[in-house]
Amino acid sequence: MFSSKALFRMALLMAVLYSCGTSQPARRNVLSPGAPGSVDNRSGKHPSQTVFTKPNQITKRQQEEERKKINTTVERREEPAAGSGDTALANASYKSPSYYKYITDSIQRTSAKASYYRSTESLFKQMAVVPNPQNPAVNAQWYTTVNFDARKPNFVILHHTAQTSAEQTLFTFSITRTGVSAHFVVGRDGLTYQMLNEYMRAWHAGKSRWGAITDMNSCSIGIEIDNNGEEPFSEPQVESLLKLLGYLKNKFGIPQANFIGHADIAPGRKDDPSKYFPWKRLADAGFGYWYDSTNLQQPPADFNALLALRVIGYDVSNPATAIKSFKLHFVQTDTTPVLSDYDKKILYNVYLNYM
Ligand SMILES: [Zn+2]
């Protein structure tokens, strides 16, 4: 027998699931500037962002209402449903992997997958429109080319999740209010999840810079590795990651130099992946560079360390944070913002790979 309280909770859960499954499509202008993650997933617009117009434009208010509806649904579900008769959720401790798995599976089933297909369909429609009626620079007859394909990612950006389980990260990327995502999530157990097609733009890099590129989301694949930032990465996880990197490198012809970390492209703002990340092992397998410890030479007298960092790709507008990011990646045992003679030898050795 269910108590009246339990029956009420069941009714509430059913109402929530029903309203979610039958809600109107959330139409968002996914190619518009200012869409979450358009350049910086938290900092809004980028002036150089191309302006596209979606055929059935909806108002900002409608978008906001849709967003609130989904987020409210999620918040309501964050109450453990003990006594609801749903044993899977009742047996899961609050915020345990099984708790997140249950909630995320429910969101995926009822709203996330539908939202994904709506967004991709909207993107395809917008990309197929040429010339764009909003483009005032086009003032001649329309001729189409017949020779093209999709743009491809040319970088892989590696992250640690700083969360407690892969399930928590899958949840984080399944709801709109977080405004973050990645193409892949690699669990500690070696399970690799794909959340987004590689040709789509995930929101993982945020405000970042590498060389002259200031929109890393547009040219990269984002991989989130389940790790809290204060622990070594597990062997099954590293093996799965290497397999994934090999697949991406072959499929898109990504250069060895272009496998880098979030901290590399966002000095002073990000510190992932942590000092425990096995960059040398990746470099030995052809993903990113490492220095040759058996052949560390003294740099020339006129060696300019900041210029070398800049050549590699670091944003050196703040030299101290650039040095810290470099050391997090290549020195790992010490991340003070100062280059020792030994650090300079490492830097010179790495720099030669980029010449
Ligand atoms: Zn990151």
Automatic annotation (TrEMBL):
Listed GO CC annotations: outer membrane
Cell wall biogenesis/degradation keyword on record: yes
Catalytic reaction equation(s): Hydrolyzes the link between N-acetylmuramoyl residues and L-amino acid residues in certain cell-wall glycopeptides
GO biological process: cell wall organization; peptidoglycan catabolic process; peptidoglycan turnover
Pfam name, any one: Amidase_2
GO molecular function terms listed in the Swiss-Prot or TrEMBL record: N-acetylmuramoyl-L-alanine amidase activity
Residue stretches making up the N-acetylmuramoyl-L-alanine amidase domain: 143-274
Transmembrane portions of the chain: none
Record's keyword terms, sorted: Cell wall biogenesis/degradation, Hydrolase
Name of the protein this chain belongs to: N-acetylmuramoyl-L-alanine amidase
Native source species: Niabella soli DSM 19437
Classification of source organism: Bacteria, Pseudomonadati, Bacteroidota, Chitinophagia, Chitinophagales
